Amino acid sequence: MELLFRFALIGMIGFAVDASSFMLIMQAMSAQTVVEINTARILAFIIAMLVTWLGNRYYTFSDAEKSSAINQLSKHCLAACGAFVLNFICFQLVLLTTGVLALAFLVGIGVGFICNFAMSKKRVFI
Q: What residue intervals traverse the membrane (predicted)?
């Protein structure tokens, strides 16, 4: 249970980094076009992914063997991208079936969290 709590804490920090980075990059770029907005979104996602990898490597899974940082980071990136895809699919399905944006957001986040935790525990930080 402590592992799940630690993972959730790092996830919340990652979410805050993601959101604040996105807003800062948007302002710095004076982003207005779809390309600029998507560029800001991708950059913010990458920054947050690095923060969560560091947090999970040195805090959540601190007892796990420290394999090659590059190897572990690449596995973390794949897990995060996979979790994002599932998050987005669930978000769209719930939004299309219920029309409730907040519910769709929460379901997407929940599914992404579970997927990311499972992959991190079984494949990334081993």
A: 7-26, 38-56, 77-95, 101-119
For the chain, the structural domain boundaries read 1-63, 66-126
Which two three-digit tokens encode residue 89? Answer: 């699919």
Six-digit token string for 45: 């996602």
CA distance 118 to 123: 8
Choose among 61, 51, 60: nearest CA to 6: 60
Question: Between vectors from CA 63 to CA 57 and to CA 65, what angle results, nearest 5°?
Answer: 75
CA 116, 121, 123, 126 torsion: positive or negative? positive
End-to-end CA distance of the chain: 18
Per the listing, tokens 């090659």 go with 68
- Write down the pTM of the prediction: 0.85
